[in-house]
Request: fold
Amino acid sequence: MIKNIFDKAVSEEIIGRINKLNANTQTLWGKMAVGQMMAHCCVTYEYVYDNIHKAPNGFLKLILKLLVKNTVVTEKPYKKNSQTGPDFLIKDTKDFEKEKQRLIAYITKTQQLGEAHFDGKASHSFGVLNKTEWNNMFYKHLDHHLSQFGV
Reply:
């Protein structure tokens, strides 16, 4: 069972794992540097809070719901080196400390808003999600990439 990211202790555990990383931490698999990974993880929260990514049109949203949603919102772990969406591809060098602080702020804000805030809220790509689906999406993605960097 996936841990509940809306629980303060779980959010603090994730932040503790993030705080074990530094700008020189090496990946165990994949191609991203640690700063890029932090920026990559922030995209999920940018979708929720920042309105900086174009929403998919109706047809693309249908395709995402049919082909991608269950990979993202269920408890099944991601495979190593899985494909990612275009908005999540971070190709340029990122400032590790800046991205780390941004990610921690997003995690904290999400925990403080709580699961009731997210239950029944529409996502950028998948339509309305329940609190469990939101939790799975948030927690599973963070856990996958923190494990990628050995924490």
